[in-house]
Amino acid sequence: MLSLVQSDGFPPPPANFNMAAYVLAHADRLADKTALQIMDVAGGIERFDYLSLKRAVLGTATGLRALVKPGAHVVMQLGNTPEFPIAFLGAIAAGIVPVSLSSALTEREYQDVVATIQPALEMRSAGAPQSQTSALPFEALRQFWALPPANFACGDPDRPAYIIYTSGTSGRPTPVVHAHRAIWARRMMWNGWYGLREDDRMMHAGAFNWTYTLGTGLLDPWSIGATALIPAQNVMPEQLPALMMTYGATLFAAAPGVYRRLLRAKVLPLPHLRHGLSAGEKLSAVDRGDWETKTGTPVYEAFGMSECSTFISASPRQPAPEGAAGFVQPGRTVALLGPDGPVPRGDIGCIAIHKSDPGLMLGYLNLPQDTADRYQGDWFLTGDLATMDATGAITYAGRADDMMNAGGHRVSPIEVEDALTAHPKISEAAVCTVQVRTGVFVIAGFYVATDVIDEDQLRNFVATRLATYKVPRLLIARDTLPRGANNKLLRRTLRNEWETAHGQT
Questions:
Q1: In this structure, is the dihedral angle defined by the CA atoms of residues 80, 227, 39 and 237, taken in order, positive or negative?
Q2: What is the pTM of this model?
Q3: Can you tell me whether residue 473 is helix, strand or coil?
Q4: How many domains does the chain have?
Q5: Which of 138, 260, 416, 492 has its CA 20 to 30 A from that of 503?
């Protein structure tokens, strides 16, 4: 049996389509219902009902149309403010292509983006440096909200809608162009991952520019008529449980790093919460177990990427077996590929999604060869490895360029990291191969611990969980582990730092 799951024929989007119109389709019916609530621990909040959200979006569309031609690119660096999603949807409503950027970028990184995108307009947070030629003052965005509403610019669902940047964990950050149809594909997550309902209050702990937050935290709740709860920019992760309890969050979405920080603090009773959602990197079995013990709620994990969002997940309808990430979402066509096509079930293969998936990107901006290089025939290669069992459950094995070789055996860093974080004093771990002398590589385990751990004791602890060839030869305690802007582990950075310090570069 091959590692292949074929689509059950998910219907295509309408031929005349606008992503923003789809997201706000329930706004007239739910006019007075809270669509967005920005929460602050001091009690100050900013609330938008569906009617005011739609008015602000279409007013923004009017304002942007007066400044920018349809199809042009506009850069957005607006942080976790209401201006962000309103400007994002306003641009899309007007037929303009927004480019969403992290507030964590340095000014040099920001200017590199501007040089690549060549935007017709720049929208940045108050206090950020402003261009002399193409900047829209931050305060002007709210003035747009009161303008007469524009009509939605509808058209081919395959035309460009927005651009995001990859996280850059496996190379340089790259602009990804998504079509209007990308939002239609997210319907498969409602039951395939979230268990999302109209009466839900979805709380997300990430930055708006991140596709995980933008989709799961904002666009998907609005598309079904639910409420989005977003912490203000000054809220710390340890303060999130109090906000969840105060504002009645029924679903909570975050990256594994946020779950780890919450678990180190006191987790309050969460009487409204049905379950948590995790994506961005693999959630360790220890953290999952601790969360379920302390809150009495499960966590459902998903695998995805900037180029296609999430398409493999566990869900309330289909929980994942222990150690697995989940199943192919209904409506997706996914395979685990080797050089000759789908591998037998149980073998490691590269996760690939069929080119027909409506959530798959149009391509990398102005990089046709880079786009073509990601395909193997009709399959888009994610660069991530996994196995699929007889039931279709998929277990993540790490990125292809993170896979390790020990005595001729392929070893997943995820498996070794899980063994390390099972130790009661270890809060997080990262594993990679390092070169100890020319041509000689060994497995190194880097970890953050709450107390000093005897190295022999730790090695014996790990040896009870792993085959001998998988046990790290080097065990290295660190104060922190390097992470990217979206909190993903940077194993390559660890390897480079260690090799540089030990004269192996």
A1: negative
A2: 0.85
A3: coil
A4: 2
A5: 416
